[in-house]
Amino acid sequence: MTCEDLLRRLVEWEDGVLPADFCGALEQHLRDCPPCAELHADLRHLRVLCGQIPRPDMPAELRRKLIALLTPR
Amino acid sequence: MAPPDLDRRAELLQVLETDGDRLYRLALRVTRDPGLAEDAVQEAFTSAIESLPSFRGEARLSTWLHRIVYTKSVDILRKRKREAPLDEETAELGADDARLARTPAWSRPPDALLESAETARALQEALAGLTPAQRAVFELREVGGQSTEETAAALGLSPGAVRIHLHRARLRLRALLAARYGGAAA
C-alpha cells in the first residue's frame, strides 16, 4: 500500500467497510511510514478537539415560532 | 380519526422535539451565522409543511428534514453570495489532497493545547475555511457522531461522497491548525 492508497482508504477503514486484506496492508503501512502515522495521529487529535466545539441549542424563540407554525389553529 | 396531514404535522412536532437542536446546529455550521441559521430552519419547516402531501415516507421524516435544512442553508448562502463558488468537488482524492496530507504536522500537541478553549476557538475559525458541504459533513459525522450512511442520507449524498468530503475537511482543518500551532506543537 502506498501513502496515496492510505489517504484514499482511511475513512473506509474507520467505517469498517474496508476488505480485511486492505485493512492489514493499511495497518502495516501506518506502522512503517512515519509521515502517515503522524497524519493519523493528527486526525485523532482533531477528533478530540471536535468534542470541545460549542454545540448551541436551538434558540427558544425559534422553537416557539416553529411550534406555532406546526400547531393547527 | 385525524386527517393524514394533521398526523404528519404531529410527527413534525415530534421531530422538532427530538432533532430540533441537531437541525439548528447543521444550519449554523453551514451558514456560520445565527440569524441565517434561524431563517434556514424556519424556511425548512415551512417548506416541509407545504410538501407534506407529497412526502411518500421513503426516508424518515427526520432525515428528510435534515436534507431540507441543508438545502435551505446552502440556498441562503448562495442568495447572499456569502460563499463563492459553491461548486462542491466530490471527485476522487487527488494531488491537492496528497499535498495537504503532507502539511507539516500539528501532531503530538501537549495535552494543554488539546484542552484549551483557545484551540477549540481556532478550530471553529478554521471551519470557515471549508466548503458548505464539508462543514455539513463535518458537523453531522465528526461532531454529531452520526454514521457515514446516516450523514449521506441526511445530506442527499452517496456514502463515498461523504467520505471524500470528510477526508478533505479533516486535511484542510489540519493544515489550518498546523499553520497556527505548528511551532507550539513541535
Topology (SSEs and partners):
The complex is a heterodimer of chains A (73) and B (186).
Chain A: H1 3-15, H2 20-32, H3 34-50, H4 60-70
Chain B: H1 4-31, H2 34-51, H3 61-79, H4 95-101, H5 111-115, H6 117-127, H7 132-143, H8 148-155, H9 159-181
Verbal overview:
The complex is a heterodimer of chains A (73) and B (186). Chain A has 4 helices and no strands. Chain A has helices at 3-15, 20-32, 34-50, 60-70. The N and C termini of chain A lie far apart (63 Å). The mean pLDDT of chain A is 90. Chain B contains 9 helices and no strands. Chain B has helices at residues 4-31, 34-51, 61-79, 95-101, 111-115, 117-127, 132-143, 148-155, 159-181. Chain B is elongated, with a radius of gyration of 18 Å. Chains A and B meet through helix 1, helix 3 and helix 4 of A and helix 1, helix 2, helix 4, helix 6 and helix 9 of B.
Short description:
Chain A is mostly helical and 73 residues long. Chain A has 4 helices and no strands.
Largest interface: A-B, 37 and 49 residues
Show unreliable segments of chain A. Answer: none
Radius of gyration of chain A: 21 Å
Largest sheet of chain B: none
Descriptors:
heterodimer, A: 73 residues, mainly alpha, 4 helices, 74% helix, 0% strand, B: 186 residues, 9 helices, elongated
